[in-house]
Structure formats: structure tokens, C-alpha cells
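EI: anyone free to look at a 611-residue chain?
SC: sure, send it
EI:
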Amino acid sequence: MTVELAMILGLLGVALVLFALGRPRMDAVALMLVAVLPFTGVVSVPEALSGFSDPSVILIAALFVIGDALVRTGVAQWIGDRMVRAAGGRETRLIAFLMLAAAGLSAVMSSTGVVAIFVPIVLRIARAARVAAGRLMMPLSMAALISGMLTLVATPPNMVVNAALVRDGHEGFGFFAFTPFGLPILVLAILYMVAVRRRLTTTEDAPPPRRLRMRDLAASYAPDGRLLRLQIGPGSALAGQSLDALDLPARAGVTVVMIERCGRLGPELVEPVAATQLHAQDILLLGVVGARFDGTQFAARYGLTALPMTGRDVARPAREFGLVEAMVPHGSVLAGRSPAEARMRDTLGLSVIAIRRGQAVLPGPASDSALREGDTLLLAGPWRVIRQMAGQRRDLVLLDLPEEAEEFVPERRRAPIAVAVLLGVVAAMATGVLPNAQAALIGCLALGLFGVMDTRSGYRAISWQTLVLIAGMMPFALALQRTGGVDLAAAAALELIGAEQPRLLLAALFLATTTLSLFISNTATAVLMAPVALAIAQGLGASPYPFAMCVALAASTAFMTPVSSPVNLLVLAPGGYRFMDFVRIGTPFTVVTLVVSVTLLPILLPLGIAP
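SC: here you go
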């Protein structure tokens, strides 16, 4: 062993310990390696920084943006809703549809992002179906992890392994090269989760605790509710008039919270401002602000038709607007002034529906009551405005947001554009018309051009920690190759197992990758193990593809501990799991995945060893 190799292995050991301890963060450890590696003399400073310009790193960053576009436009949420309807409340079907939806969506966007989207959806499903959340959360995380075995872009380790193949002079994997391995494993995972679902919870079928909902919030301010939904008829006196001319708060004791209007691409939500003109067939969401408001009389007087506040027709608008409770803090400029005097509708973009002082709701029009410090207000308006207020605590402090706030989708009207861009990027990658990174970057530019994403939301969508980790670990793999560390590991594996047992070598490579990913991220594991896999293949005189694919599949098999992947950490608390729950459930299926992978690899990707 040379001095250079000893230094590199020493740095690797330190990095592994720090990764396992979680202090400092993994991306900080990767930056430390970038800074220290040039001192060993094995790599130069430009080579240590070369990971930041690697095409796979650019591709991963672009895919984070495209994946976030599916969230912003409600595509991910739509898939979740369809899944619930298709399941029909049956637990086994629910688990199957949940895993299929999570895996399918994660195949083209960040699995961590998909799980973050689905956690509140699954909690809502669990409450509605009276199913323990623990029976659904681990199937969700397992499906999201298996999605990494479905497409080239499903997870960063796949792209890291693919980049290692290209750097070694081989042709990279195709977009769907992973699918024949992932599909059977996904089917087995669904059957496995259905079989062991009763072992997924420690609390006997206990549904998750009930969270605050908008109807509860409205009922706490008035037993009969404070919101009405009415449609303007063709001969209504409201049609053609502007809101400032109507002055409904003073004349009728109601305020217009939101207007739903039929547009070219379907229903559109219009925020009511003073100059907004009402049209026939508009649907108005009205907030009752007067003490003696009669809804029946009001509808008859203005030619309106009452609509229900529940059901599928109101589900979409309810995701755009909502109710929230806010408190007037000490020192607020609103104290001593009424909402009308403070022009809260114009300055905040929210309507004051009711005011509570102590335990009592104030009578009379809410807009005319002078506010005091400590008063709580029931506000109604767009979720976009409500979320902008969340970080401001000077004049109004938002209290607990209702559950419906998690369903807010800022760019729902542009969902067809996001889907079209995604399909275009996938088609370009699958056909090889453009390099993967270039296709993804063009997709990001198209999202910006059509207004789906702006620059700020695009930068916010990227997981910079993941990118820095990958870019920082790439020169480390180069250093191991130059010092002979990769060849040493490959030679040790060949000597220990023998070149006559390629399936055993695949199994050992799979186990080594899976074991290493228990302590460090699967992305960092792929960076380290991909060169070893290629060296083993070279030592055998075999095709590099089954060995590279083995590392990619093993890197996605992070089922055994909650710290193996961010996906598992996201479901840990909502599912009520303990560390050993992942060990009990994940270990057997890791063995299943190993057996399936080692069986299929030589069949689907021939080893090509000369007899």
C-alpha cells in the first residue's frame, strides 16, 4: 500500500465516521474533502472542483426543478386524489394504489419530494378510512425507494453510476434500462406490504390524531358557519356591477371572499378587488360579516342560487382559498382601529369574517368593530396571501393553519404545460435526441417561459445539499482510482470469491453497497462503489453493465433503517415507527431484492465472460 493510498483511505475513514455521526452535515463533509484532497497530491484543485460541472450534477438539479413544477401545478395532488377514489376505501387496494402512484411519480421526479407531497395526503386518507397511518406510511417510503429501480432519472445514484460508465468509455444506460428490474421488485413489494400490513403498527388500528380543519375553525366563530356559496343567475342585479359600486358589506352584511369564473381552460378563481366586475354564472364565496344576515332573503333579492359548501364541486376552489385564525399582538398598529378603517381588505388581501374577544364573538359587522390587542380574527382569502403572511409577526400573528393549507397549489392552471414539458423531456432522454442534461435544462427554460416556475421558485426547488454531496464525492472516487484503491478492492473481491462465481460476486457487490448505504447516503455509496463494480468487471473480462446495474439497484435498497434515506425519515414520525420497525420489515425484503436482482442481472444483462 502506497503512502498516497493510505492518506486517501484515511480520509475515507474519517468521512464515513462523520457521515454516520451526522455531524457536520453530509454536504459540509463533502466540501471538506474537496478542500483537503489537493493537499494529498493525488488530484489537482481543478480536478477536486470538477464534480460541480459534471453533467449528471446539472441533470439532477434540473430534475429537481421539473419535479417541483408537478407539485406547484397540482399534478402530484391530482394523482393522489385519483388513487383514493380508485381504492374505494379498501385497505389492500389502498396500499397497492398508493405504492403504484408513489413509484410512478417518483420515477420522473425526486422521491423525497414525492413522499413529502404524499405524507399529508396519506394522513388525510387514513383519517377518512379509519386506518392506522402506520399501515400506509412504510409502503409509501418503500415504493418511493423502489422507484429508483424504474428509470435512469428516478434517483441520483442511477445517474452517478451512469456517469461512471460514460467516464470509463462505455455507453451509458438507456432511460428505461432499469425498468425490467424494478417492475417485478415493485410487484413483490406490494404483495409483501399487503401481507405484513398488520405488523406495521404498534397501536391497534388507531387513526392519526384529528387536525384542525376549516369547518371547525368557522364553527368556532359561529355555530351556523360564516361562509356561503352562491351563483349569479342570468337576470341577477349583481351581474355587470363592480364590487365597489355594490358595497355589499355595508348594504347586505356580506363580503366577497372569492369568485369562481368559467374560463377558457375551465374554472378560474378571481380575487375580488374594488374594480372587479361580476358576471352572470359567477360563483361567489361570501363571508357573513353582519349580525342579522338572512341568506335566503339575500339570494332571492339579488337573483342568486345557493350551492353546497361540500362535495366535489367545491373541492378545487377550496384548494385556492381558505380560512385562517390570526391574533392582534401587543403593539400592533391595528389596535384601536376597525378593519374598515385599517383597510385590511386592500392592504392584506384578506377579508375579516368575524372577531372574537376572549370567549365571545363580537356582534355586528366585523369590519366596523374596533380591534384590541389579544383579539383573534377569522380571516378568509387566497392561500397564496395567507402563506405570505405566515412569516410576518408584527401586526397580525397567524395561528395554527388548517389542514387544507397543505393542499394549496399555486399554479394549477398551468398543469397541462408542466405535464407537456415533462413528457417532452422524458421523450428526448428516452430517444437520445438530446443529451440528458441538455434536455432537462431546456425543460426548465420552458417552464420559466410559460410561467410555471420563476427564478426564485426554481432555485428553491433544488436540493443543494444533495448536489454538493455528489459533486464533492466525485473527486474522491477519482483519487481512489489513481492510488489503486479501486483495483485493490476489486482484486480482494475476486481473490476471496473467485472469478468462477460471477453470481456470487454480484451478490457480494450488492451486499457491500447495501451495507455501506446503512451508514452513509445512497448517493455517496454509489459514487464510491461504481468504480469498484467496473474494476471487478474488468478483472473478470466481463461486461460492465450487470455490475454497474447491481450497484444502482443496491443503492435503492435502503429499506433497513430510517436513516438510510431521507425518504424513510419523512415517514418515521407520521407513521409512529421506531428504529426496529424498519429493521423488522425492511431486512426480509432486502433479501428478496438481492435474490431477484442477482437472478435477473445475468439474464437481462449478459455477463459476456469468454468461456
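EI: The domain at 212-401 is CATH 3.30.70.1450 (Alpha-Beta Plaits).
SC: 👍
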